[in-house]
Design brief:
The protein is an alpha+beta fold and about 180 residues long. It contains five helices and eight strands; from the N terminus they run ααββαββββααββ.
């Protein structure tokens, strides 16, 4: 993985994500990250996962490095809190029970054989035509999925039939440094 984050950098990003969500939910305002750390200013893919009382309430991210990591984390924290179509936007009453997890991603790379996917190590991006679905590396561990179940859920996330991975899809893998409060 290109450049692991140290504990101070992880703490900074978690605080930034919390501040971004709190500011948006309470005031409607967007905050600006203030750092000169070159590692945090490097462009990286990142996802922010929000849970309230341990239950998923939002997960959105950039799979590719489009923006500096600080901007990506702040934006995706707000998006996870307010724009994940699967959930109602967070309310102020949710904030005391909010847990934040950040996944900083490596660049995706295609695999030729599904057996090159290491469950628990790799996240997957399944695509076919205009359809694309991404699952983070921690997802199959949370649900105790084997490789086939992981691939089926990747297809479903892409809007494809669950066994489409057997018929010809593009599968890319990536790794993530995952940390939470």
């Amino acid at each position: 993985m290109s450049e692991f984050l140290n504990e101070d950098q992880k703490r900074y990003l978690l605080g930034l994500a919390r501040e971004a969500v709190t500011s948006r939910v309470q005031t409607g305002r967007t905050i600006k990250a203030e750092t000169k750390d070159p590692v945090l200013l490097a462009k990286r893919g990142a996802f922010v996962t929000l849970k309230v009382k341990g239950e998923l309430r939002g997960c959105i991210g950039y799979p590719l490095p489009h923006k500096p990591l600080t901007e990506a984390v702040a934006e995706m924290a707000i998006a996870a809190a307010t724009q994940d179509y699967r959930f109602e936007p967070l309310k102020e009453s949710d904030l005391p029970n909010l847990g934040i997890e950040i996944s900083v991603l490596t660049l995706p790379r295609p695999v030729k054989d599904v057996h090159d996917v290491a469950v628990g190590k790799h996240g997957i991006i399944v695509s076919k035509g205009p359809y694309k679905g991404l699952l983070l590396p921690q997802v199959p561990l949370e649900y105790d999925w084997d490789l086939e179940t992981f691939l089926r859920h990747g297809c479903l996330k892409a809007g494809l039939a669950e066994n489409e991975w057997k018929k010809g899809v593009t599968i890319e893998v990536f790794e993530a440094q995952v940390f939470s409060e």
